[in-house]
Amino acid sequence: MSQTYRQATRTDIEAIAVLHADSWRASYRGMLDDGYLDGPVFDDRRAVWTKRLSHPSEAQLVVVAEDDPEVVGFACGYAREDAIWGNFLDNIHTHPKRHGEGIGTRLLAEVVAWCRVVAGDCGLYLYVLGMNQKARRFYEHLGATDTGSESRPPGVGGEPRDIHRYAWSTLDAVDIERSRSRNR
User: Fold this and answer.
1) 101: domain range?
2) What is the DSSP string of 81-124?
3) Which residues pair with 127 in a beta bridge?
4) Which of 154, 173, 161, 170 is nearest to 31 (CA)?
5) In whole angstroms, how far apart are CA 132 and each of 18, 81, 151, 154?
6) With contact defined as beta carbons under 8 Å apart, do 126 and 165 qualify?
7) From first to last of its 184 residues, what are the pLDDT tens digits of the chain?
8) Model's pTM, two decimal places?
9) The CATH number of the domain where 20 resides is what?
10) Number of domains composing the chain
């Protein structure tokens, strides 16, 4: 299947919210409260994406992967979000049934390309739930370093969480080609 990648617009709010909620239900079961995942997760995600796509910051990129007409992935990044760590990858999700097709890697490549233009002199970082071994392996495979964990109080989903920061010190350290060769 062939995907197209483009910047998200307001018309993508519902599709992104549905995909985000479905991804959390599939990936975070046992990590977040089941009552949250089975209940308000979609409404919460829709509120987030309505805000982000209705009033986007100049320092924000939201990109979607489309397998016409379906949105099968998305990523959200922020330029220069942190003075030490640099650009922030806030979200990257693919449809649970499409994992392993390279969509996540291509979304990351889109974010990195944008970061090179708007803030190319700093690195990239993100946060991952400690229990999310699949995501942690994905980022490690792409060259990210686990810079440590912190314990956060209960937040969205109700569970106390062990959060790991993964980082690339420079944008050149993001090893997209290594992942592409694995998906061939």
Assistant:
1) 4-182
2) EETTTEEEEEEEEE-GGGTTSSHHHHHHHHHHHHHHHHHTTS-E
3) 165
4) 161
5) 21, 23, 15, 17
6) yes
7) 578 999 999 999 999 999 999 999 999 998 889 999 999 999 999 999 999 999 999 999 999 999 988 999 999 999 999 999 999 999 999 999 999 999 999 999 999 999 999 999 999 999 999 999 999 999 999 999 999 998 877 777 776 678 999 999 999 999 888 654 554 4
8) 0.92
9) 3.40.630.30
10) 1
DSSP three-state, residue 151 = strand
* Burial of residue 130 (number of CB atoms within 10 Å: 0-12, 13-18, 19+): middle
Name residue, tokens 């889109």.
110
Return d(Cα 184, Cα 180) in angstroms, integer: 7
Q: Which of 101, 93, 94, 173 is nearest to 140 (CA)?
A: 173
Q: Collect all residues with Cβ–Cβ distance below 8 Å to 111 and sequence separation of at least 6.
A: 61, 63, 75, 77, 87, 89, 92, 124
DSSP per-residue string spanning 18-61: HHHHHHHHHHSBTTB-HHHHHTTHHHHHHHHHHHHHHS--TTEE
